[in-house]
Amino acid sequence: DGEASGRPMLVVWGVVLGFTLTRVLVDQGWIEGNPLTVYGIQYALAGAVFLFGLAQADRMMEFRRLRDRARQDKARVDADLVVEQVRRRLIEELHVGIRGADAKDVEWLAFRRLLEAVRSLVPQQGSSVIAFGYHGLDLLLAEPLGLKKEYTRLLARRGTTIKGLCRSRKPVNLPLEEIALPDGGVVPGGVFAVVPLQVAKPGWGVLLVRREEGSAFEPFELQLLGEFAQVAVNAADEAAAAVDLRRRAELDPLTGALNRRAMEGRLQASVERTHAERRPLALLFVDLDHFKQVNDHHGHGVGDDCLRLASDCIRRHLGKDDLFGRYGGEEFIIVLPDMRQDAARELADRIREAIAGLCVVGEANVTFTVSIGLASRLPGEKSPRSIIERADKALYQAKRGGRNRVQVASSHGFGLEGAAAEFL
Ligand SMILES: Nc1nc2c(ncn2[C@@H]2O[C@H](COP(=O)(O)OP(=O)(O)OP(=O)(O)O)[C@@H](O)[C@H]2O)c(=O)[nH]1
């Protein structure tokens, strides 16, 4: 550039030099004077000054252009840096925040983190994540506090449109008019960035980001939202898979009951908690009667079916805080925290009766029964071992007493007879 603007100046200075020589020759009388030979030097100098000014203006403009471009580049780099920082923070938070979280909280936590991240990146009036059938959840709604109602209404009115847009799997702008409802509520309006979540079918999910009407999201914003949503979905998928793996490692594959190791850990915690809170706890030892005969007469497959049926039946009788584990081949333990002995006995009887009514349908219809030993945590008792021992003894008595019955353990001989029988 410098070379290009320098060339005309060189020519002009050459012309000035030429006219200076001509003037000298005129002054010496060697050539004839006329306006060109006498004043040519002034014309050439004026031209030189004009061209110099032009070149300077050019340089100035070029300088401004470069400065503006540098500013834009810096702004872009700064913005990219902010995006990367937020992305890194989101990944870290997802990694730390949802690992080890309760299985039921994993998705919700991941999407709350996502909403916080996009709020700091994309100017908006509010955002929410809505997902159906994701990881087996009916409906998952993560939204800023206090806006649950609005988003629920939005879903009721615009759910089909939003779901339809999710099919394209690409983030898009969706302008929506606000709807005033007869009950005084409103369905929020504005421009919505509809960002489909890549979740396994038949589930579907969307990140919705709202802005005032007339301020559509730029393509780079939509792309950013799509990328961040994907980061959160991946993290939620991984965390849910890890939870699933942990859960499976605790379950008995045949019956789906807790395996013995997991059961012992949970039982210990449950006994300690009820001891600390001075609450009752009942434990049932359940054993299938004459199970060897079932196996011998009908085969191991039918025996397995009996174990599965009995387990499903027991589970149907339990609450969400009760524990159910397979303790041995055909032995199960049921832990009923916060349940007094009377109630536990009634429950045990209901389970016994229900199992007696089961039937494995096959070549022969096989019915079977269970015997149950019941023991309660005694006041002051904080270890599961003695409770299991008592329940086991009671089970033995139930077997000796003719099977298909519930036997309540006696607390005699455990040195706790004197303690208040407050849980019994
Ligand atoms: N089909 C099947 N059988 C099992 C499994 N685990 C243990 N068993 C069988 O369970 C039977 C337990 O028999 P026993 O301990 O003699 O007791 P029982 O025949 O049930 O007699 P009582 O308990 O005295 O009523 C054995 O035959 C085991 O082979 C299993 O996973 N599947």
UniProtKB/TrEMBL annotation:
Q: What cofactor is needed?
A: Mg(2+)
Q: In what residue span(s) does the GGDEF domain sit?
A: 279-411
Q: Quote the EC number.
A: 2.7.7.65
Provide any one GO MF term from the record: diguanylate cyclase activity
Key words of the record = Membrane, Signal, Transmembrane, Transmembrane helix
Q: Which Pfam families does this chain map to?
A: GGDEF
Query: Taxonomically, which superkingdom?
Result: Bacteria
Checking CDD domains in the record gives:
GGDEF (cd01949)
Quickly give the catalysed reaction. 2 GTP = 3',3'-c-di-GMP + 2 diphosphate
> What is the main EC category here?
transferase
* Transmembrane residue ranges: 10-26, 38-57
- InterPro entries, alphabetized: Diguanylate_Cyclase, GAF-like_dom_sf, GGDEF_dom, Nucleotide_cyclase, Rev_trsase/Diguanyl_cyclase
This chain's protein is named: diguanylate cyclase
